[in-house]
Amino acid sequence: MDARLILLHVLALLAVVAGGGGGGGAVVGRESAVLPLRELQWGSSGQGRYSQSKRFEKKMTGEHKKSAAARTTSTTVLELKHHSLTAISDHPAAQESYLRRLLAADEARANSLQLRNKAAFTQSGNAAAAAEVPLTSGIRFQTLNYVTTIALGGRSSRAGVGNLTVIVDTGSDLTWVQCKPCSVCYAQRDPLFDPAGSASYAAVPCNASACEASLKAATGVPGSCASGSGNSEKCYYALAYGDGSFSRGVLATDTVALGGASLDGFVFGCGLSNRGLFGGTAGLMGLGRTELSLVSQTASRFGGVFSYCLPATTSGDAAGSLSLGGDTSSYRNATPVSYTRMIADPAQPPFYFMNVTGASVGGAVAAAGLGAANVLIDSGTVITRLAPSVYRAVRGEFARQFTERYPAAPPFSLLDTCYNLTGHDEVKVPLLTLRLEGGADMTVDAAGMLFMVRKDGSQVCLAMASLSFEDQTPIIGNYQQKNKRVVYDTVGSRLGFADEDCTYA
Ligand SMILES: *[C@@H]1O[C@H](CO)[C@@H](O)[C@H](O)[C@H]1NC(C)=O
Ligand SMILES: *[C@@H]1O[C@H](CO)[C@@H](O)[C@H](O)[C@H]1NC(C)=O
Ligand SMILES: *[C@@H]1O[C@H](CO)[C@@H](O)[C@H](O)[C@H]1NC(C)=O
Ligand SMILES: *[C@@H]1O[C@H](CO)[C@@H](O)[C@H](O)[C@H]1NC(C)=O
């Protein structure tokens, strides 16, 4: 049984009601939302059954192509889901320790983003085009991250072609999957990718530029060379994440299927030694900014644009979407996409930053900015982290508006503002709005405001946390990005936001 699955499911139910019209029309100037609150229903089957929604199966069969005056762009759509392979006991204590582990892992990630080394990185120029892949939330894989499914291996492969469920990460670049023959692999749900079964698989030669500069930009260290079983030298990569997770293996190329689109010569890591908080996924899709990221590698096809819509519910069948390419026809946004400038930091090459010029809660201004020039937006961090002074202001305003009617509950992990909502059928939740440079607003969906620790509603917390120091980088986490279309236009150098009901299935 998966605790978060239920949590988000309930919040999603709440969100639907909060939308007033089922999320239909544009709601401008929304300040708060009324949420119905009910006892969580624990589903009968906790096992993470993975199923593609019918809607997406259709979409995924064909790549959308569209000729523009200046260039040809194409777009492909992938399903995006929470992943939840781990069965969690119904017992409250088990659920609580599960949530604690998840938030501890999130803290490790948030810290690792702060500690990123400041080595100089080179950034290649951008090309242009679009593809869409489905996104699902990472719950099934023991994290709060979102996953999508890709396939590696060419058509002529024997058994090489396989669907692989991977974590979607905008905070790193190199895509990797666990590969046969694994020396150290964690248990994954999909069959291991077998390079020997794919006729189109090839190791990247050691003297290729991908092994040197590109890998250094993507991982901080260039590849190392060693003779494989053949006579040619292979390029070995070593990826280390801040929380101690790692993947090491052979840098390789193969054909990758992304929704309806198929691309040859995709550079990825064939991981022979992998360990960490990847749960039951096959690996990770890197959507960062350097040249080895999926976005950069597919830029001539998809124009360097991608977007996602993260579902609020973690129910196994609920899927949002990951679109590669700039074709907006696959969006179901309820409000127009409004853009703000995308900011790059040469010292932190993979990351996407923006300038947040204000924060309000329930329509009341709480802060004149987020206390830092660059605010990181990340698909892999769960809980939004704010500078201590900004967090205090936001929390204060939220509490002022919310606690008038709801008694306090004990803090939980990194969440320090919690309420006992037992006995309330509905709660009115003030919403956080971020004012972005250029005038765009991003209002957090009702589903992204509260984190339900206990299924009976007796411990429900404001889903945001404080950084340790004022000068750390604020992070907009995925919990606050739910039910939004978030557009990353790396060529136009802009980030876009629109309200969207992301439960596509
Ligand atoms: C991969 O997923 C697609 C889309 O759901 C499905 O049609 C196909 O049969 C799957 N392939 C394998 C090998 O499971
Ligand atoms: C890499 O090495 C191979 C074999 O030694 C050679 O044929 C090839 O030209 C080299 N490639 C580059 C880019 O130097
Ligand atoms: C952020 O935007 C504000 C308002 O446009 C501007 O005054 C400020 O200089 C910007 N900050 C940075 C670091 O660009
Ligand atoms: C929450 O509030 C209810 C109703 O007021 C009360 O019975 C219950 O003991 C409280 N639970 C906790 C954990 O404080």
From TrEMBL:
- Any idea which UniProt keywords this protein has? Signal
Basic and acidic residues compositional bias: what residue ranges? 54-66
Q: Name one Pfam family in it.
A: TAXi_C
Q: Listed GO molecular functions? A: aspartic-type endopeptidase activity
Q: Which organism is it from?
A: Oryza punctata
Keyword tRNA processing included in the entry's annotation: no
Family from the record:
Belongs to the peptidase A1 family.
Enumerate composition-biased segments (Polar residues).
44-53
CDD domains in the cross-refs: cnd41_like (cd05472)
- All copies of the Peptidase A1 domain together span 146-498
Residues at the active site: D169, D378
Task: State the signal peptide span.
Answer: 1-19
Q: Name one GO biological process term.
A: proteolysis
Record's protein name: Peptidase A1 domain-containing protein
PANTHER family for this protein: ASPARTYL PROTEASES (PTHR13683), PEPTIDASE A1 DOMAIN-CONTAINING PROTEIN (PTHR13683:SF827)
| UniProt region (Disordered), positions on chain | 44-72
